[in-house]
């Protein structure tokens, strides 16, 4: 690893820590009530996202890096560089507002499209657990190497996105699988596949504009790939050329073992 | 609170800590590979449960209490007392073996049936977060009072047990609801309702002998009741008389607001 790579990874780590601090402070602040109240009635609740995104921008300024920003709230923010930092300041905002302990900050550095992501880092905003990977150098959780698990249908654990926007076949998958989990936090669920805790993650909404964005998946995409797995959309098509914008949306099938990908194809889920 | 009550609660807390230590040690021991391998192929994996249960029995001996034990592996162990400790040493064993961060130890003290539970304590075996309640004295998480949330369909979050054993209407509920989560750890999911993070928890298997036991739900039942919610089976019938044995099984609908119970009835889910 060049010193430049190492330095970039350390910047991502410090940015993730800055976001974690802001979210933790918000959770214990006297203003928490306002933020939570906004979430309670189901209206858009970007206040916490905005706080977290501001922390990212501030941290990037302090680090003196020229990376452009691609982030949910701010959109694309040119900052003079060639590389872009693709950010979901809080993946699982509703969970965070509700004290459901599944939310992350997701940071990916690269250019153009998912295949162009060089570094990915995701931090669990509850436990502080941090996953990262850089292209060609393996994937890690808190410094320990991780690998996906061999697929075994008898021991299968699948993460599936459900609810009234999910497609019929997403529901059918949840009905047929041996063990189903669902967290409402795409990056976390993809990382459960990356670390060998689960076999796959399936996200397909009937309303295509409610599918996932590059900001949700870019970091986990790199980490899962380095851990031995892969990511396609729910037609089984490669996402390598999926652009690093905030407009594009895609369904996601993330798998740890290509045998699981084949089984999903055979079952008509892709 | 009498000194006797306080003392009982402290015993439960220390027992939960003993289990937490054993599970943590198992996760970092050189033998972990064996335990995890047992889980990987989908065969029954009671090894970790047995370790945890042994820790409960040892802790009870050290505390000098005469409570009988009702526990998944050991069954009913008479120990000379009038009260029974109803224990799930690890709720979410598969999760624990897979490093999926949702597992608990669940401890309830009482007699005869769920209505006879006086004290309940549940500890998150990953984060150490601890919920408890005693009858008539409110419910707490790490010392802070908790309450269920008012039901609002637009902001609804439901925990639903899914997979190939779930009933058709459980799947239908997951298909119709606004936001669905699923963890494979009943006590944890019921406590998300108790602390106001979610609106309800629904568990109904087509194979009745795969439904939940008193050991899974006794502690969370008391905590949720004290937090302002309630628990029925999935026909809407009271579980107050559900006996504290390891043989009995029941479906579970746990709700935070009685309006949510009414909506579930109206929707044909109960």
Describe this structure in words.
The structure is a homodimer of 270-residue chains. With 270 residues, the first copy, chain A, is α+β, with helices and mostly antiparallel strands. The first copy, chain A, has helices at 3-28, 32-40, 47-63, 93-97, 168-176, 186-194, 214-226, 258-266, and strands spanning 68-71, 75-77, 84-91, 104-110, 117-124, 130-134, 139-141, 144-146, 158-160, 180-181, 200-203, 230-232, 252-255. In chain A, the strands form 2 sheets. An 8-stranded mixed beta sheet of chain A has the order 2-1-3-4-5-6-7-8, with helices on both faces. A 5-stranded mixed beta sheet of chain A has the order 10-9-11-13-12, with helices on both faces. Chain A starts with a helix and ends with a helix.
List keywords for this structure.
270 residues; D-Maltodextrin-Binding Protein, domain 2; 21% strand; 2 domains; 13 strands; 8 helices; Fructose-1,6-Bisphosphatase, Chain A, domain 1; homodimer; 5-stranded mixed beta sheet; alpha+beta
How are the SSEs placed, and which strands pair?
The structure is a homodimer of 270-residue chains.
Chain A (H helix, E strand, L loop, with lengths): L2 H26 L3 H9 L6 H17 L4 E4 L3 E3 L6 E8 L1 H5 L6 E7 L6 E8 L5 E5 L4 E3 L2 E3 L11 E3 L7 H9 L3 E2 L4 H9 L5 E4 L10 H13 L3 E3 L19 E4 L2 H9 L4
Roughly what percent helix of chain A?
Answer: 25-40%
State the helix count of chain A: 8
The structural domain count of chain A equals 2
Shape of chain A: globular
CATH level 1 name of the largest domain in chain A: Alpha Beta
């Amino acid at each position: 690893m060049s010193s430049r790579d190492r330095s970039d990874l350390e910047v991502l780590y410090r940015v993730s820590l800055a976001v974690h601090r802001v979210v933790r402070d918000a959770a214990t602040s006297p203003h928490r009530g306002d933020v939570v109240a906004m979430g309670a009635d189901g209206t858009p609740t970007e206040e916490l996202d905005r706080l977290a995104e501001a922390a990212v921008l501030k941290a990037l300024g302090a680090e003196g890096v020229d990376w452009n920003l691609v982030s949910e709230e701010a959109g694309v923010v040119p900052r003079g560089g060639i590389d872009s930092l693709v950010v979901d300041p809080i993946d699982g905002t509703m969970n965070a507002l509700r004290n459901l302990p599944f939310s992350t900050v997701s940071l990916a550095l690269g250019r153009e499209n998912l295949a162009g992501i060089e570094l990915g880092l995701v931090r669990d905003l509850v436990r502080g657990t941090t996953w990262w990977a850089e292209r060609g150098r393996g994937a890690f959780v808190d410094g320990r190497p991780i690998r996906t698990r061999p697929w075994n249908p008898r021991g299968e654990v699948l993460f599936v996105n459900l609810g009234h926007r999910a497609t019929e076949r997403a529901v059918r998958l949840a009905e047929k699988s041996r063990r189903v989990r669902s967290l409402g936090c795409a990056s976390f669920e993809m990382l459960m596949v990356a670390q060998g805790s689960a076999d796959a993650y399936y996200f397909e909404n009937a309303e295509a504009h409610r599918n996932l964005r590059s900001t949700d998946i870019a970091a986990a995409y790199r980490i899962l790939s380095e851990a031995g797995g892969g990511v396609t959309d729910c037609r089984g098509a490669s996402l390598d050329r999926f652009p690093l914008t905030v407009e594009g949306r895609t369904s996601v099938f993330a798998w740890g073992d290509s045998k699981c990908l084949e089984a999903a194809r055979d079952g008509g889920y892709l």
